[in-house]
Amino acid sequence: MSDALPLGSVIGILGGGQLGRMLSVAASRLGFRTHIYEPMENPPAAHVADRLTTASYDDTEALRAFAASVDVITYEFENIPTAALDLLEAARPIRPNRRALAISQDRISEKDFLTGLGLTTAPYSAVNGMDELQAALSRIGAPAILKTTRLGYDGKGQARLRGPEDAEAALAAMAGAPAVLEGFVTFSHEVSVIAARGLDGSVACFDPGENVHRDGILHSTTIPARLSPAQRSDAVLLAARILNALDYVGVMGVELFVTRQGLLVNEIAPRVHNSGHWTQNGCAIDQFEQHIRAVAGWPLGDGSRHSDVVMENLIGDDILRVPEIARERNAALHLYGKSEARPGRKMGHVNRVQVPAAGK
Amino acid sequence: MSDALPLGSVIGILGGGQLGRMLSVAASRLGFRTHIYEPMENPPAAHVADRLTTASYDDTEALRAFAASVDVITYEFENIPTAALDLLEAARPIRPNRRALAISQDRISEKDFLTGLGLTTAPYSAVNGMDELQAALSRIGAPAILKTTRLGYDGKGQARLRGPEDAEAALAAMAGAPAVLEGFVTFSHEVSVIAARGLDGSVACFDPGENVHRDGILHSTTIPARLSPAQRSDAVLLAARILNALDYVGVMGVELFVTRQGLLVNEIAPRVHNSGHWTQNGCAIDQFEQHIRAVAGWPLGDGSRHSDVVMENLIGDDILRVPEIARERNAALHLYGKSEARPGRKMGHVNRVQVPAAGK
Fold first, then answer.
1. How far apart are the C-alpha atoms of B188 and B183, rounded to whole Å?
2. Domains of chain A as residue ranges with CATH
């Protein structure tokens, strides 16, 4: 642990949402303090952080002071402006590194990177204007989905095409932004691997979870996922290949489609991931602590699971069900402290721990 | 949950040590904020709390402002000055209640209360001066231990007597404070029950843990404890009797000696307890969340355990073993963020989760 951050060090976290909040709690367990950088007032992470800077990502003075006050910088979301990253990186290490961020900020770079590693993705084609869209449609076929290449998040900036007749409306929905057409894939279910890589290059993965989405937002993750032993090891090896290729440090979420032709990479996220929240109640070391360990140059946990878990997201008005969930046995609530419950807003989650029926 | 605190409420915590720190994290999981009141600068709890007041317990203005800013008040230690409690209680509910505090602040009141409930304690006798000490010694016999009646904590204010020849030195060690002579008890081991009682009067206990002390400080707690089924149910019923008699709301630690004559109550603590730290990695709802649930008028968790755990305290220089512990499988570290490691100071703990050898 020669490169390891000493106890009492300060970890800077860009973004003050629920992921930053849970990272901050995990950092405290390892004796670290956290400093949150977030443009919005009263962010969830600030309730459990040592320090908060409320400033925009173009406030160079605030960014410099933030960097000077921390020992290492990490982030809870991938769409951080490049200029801010340049400034921060000049002062302190940013983990995971810039390359992982650059790739995941752009759907085309991401898919080019993945296919370059020999991994399979859905068929895709860059689309700038109607000519390219029509060419892409004839190559990929319909139905397909048109997405802006950047700032994709929870189903925003996306349009479905049942056939060529939807091309005009779909292109209009992109509002002139560079886009990518993705073919639909026939898959039986989606799984994700929460993978981590340490500063020493060691890789550890949590068991894959099986995801169910509703309205483009993750609804639940069930551990263990339905996978054959061969698929399970494929999933883990594939995730490790991605992390090694990026010289990655931290936790990454890798979403996979399970198809007859094998596993297909849907998306990667260079951060802790909603589909890894189950680890909080299924493992001695959860994804948040795993990320902090990696970023701090500590040894990784091995990802082993002591319990099966079903994670359910609480979205919008689901928060009204908290009194009822609080009465359930073995249901661990994790609420984010957001004051307003808007439709589609992630308000919390519940990890239902599957306890063996017989007393031990 | 009609009396339940709504999401976003603020829980005031008296005391900013590691217990306050872990209570604050648990409160955040339920969507609450915390406000810590602590006389010392830079307390561990402040790193993960929404607000901190640094003021002494005789600062009436600070106490009033604190009370006005919170919805309910709880505490992490029992020796809070009475005048401060009077002032706070006039503004907001204090949970657990004053009676529990008053009893546990005084060893004689505590033992009188317990024996009044029909429970067994070590033989004891109040000692004010040499005459009473000699009378107590002849009744109880030696070896025995003389303790100040108040402010007892981790072996401080205590003196052992091998026989009457030690009486003078022991009495001198009390420095004129009221004291109690306690007889030694022959016991095979010590266990503790972490019990909780909700605002609705429901009681839930975690499985008893088996404690090992070193130099008067808790060294480890092992779950499950060595107890027969009859002893196990005795332990839980006895804890419930204590909580019900006090109309208690919150978590209490009940330390018991296992003797040939049955279970004997060593000590009660009206707060979350070091011997309950294992619940963080053994249960879906741990003792800290259980306490917050009670204090907030929420339903209690049932205390069920998904994993066996061995908790080890990291005292003083044990903190130097963190790099080595961080490499262990299934070892969950919980460090308190204290900057200075003094001998006897609790710096953190590790919960070693006993994961079944075969993959599930």
1. 16
2. 10-94 (3.40.50.20), 123-183 (3.30.1490.20), 189-354 (3.30.470.20)
